[in-house]
Amino acid sequence: MLGYLSDNHIPIWIRQVLIPGYTDDKQDLIKLKNFINSLKTVQKVELLPYHDMGKFKWKKLGFNYALENVRDANSDDLKKAKEILGKNFFIY
């Protein structure tokens, strides 16, 4: 879908959640950077730090929270990811 949008000159905003132990691997972040750089119409990229503030909703609904033992992303995680991804990535 992103390739289609790029090829048809449709602006793209990308949002990536940084989850420690899941989406913060150096090689995966390099692949993400290369993929995004291959697109022609990316206007904005947001790197969103994972947090577990919604965990209570899952428990209230009686569902297992799959990321139960995952810690929140911290400023060091975001700094490391931003160094890998480069200056064109924005952190929120």
Give structural attributes.
alpha/beta, 3-stranded parallel beta sheet, 92 residues, 3 strands
Overview of this protein structure:
With 92 residues, the protein is of the alpha/beta class.
Quick structural summary:
By secondary structure, the chain is an alpha/beta fold.
Describe the SSE topology.
Layout: H1 2-7, E1 12-18, H2 26-38, E2 42-49, H3 55-60, H4 75-85, E3 90-91
Parallel strand pairs: 1-2, 2-3
Query: Biggest β-sheet, characterized?
Result: 3 strands, parallel
Give the end-to-end Cα distance, rounded to a whole number of Å. 24 Å
Helix proportion of residues, in percent?
25-40%
**Which stretches of 5+ consecutive residues score pLDDT under 50?**
none
Strand arrangement across the biggest beta sheet? 1-2-3
Mean pLDDT: 91
Q: Give the DSSP E fraction (strand runs of 2 or more residues).
A: 15-25%
Radius of gyration: 15 Å
Oligomeric form: single chain
Structure class? alpha/beta
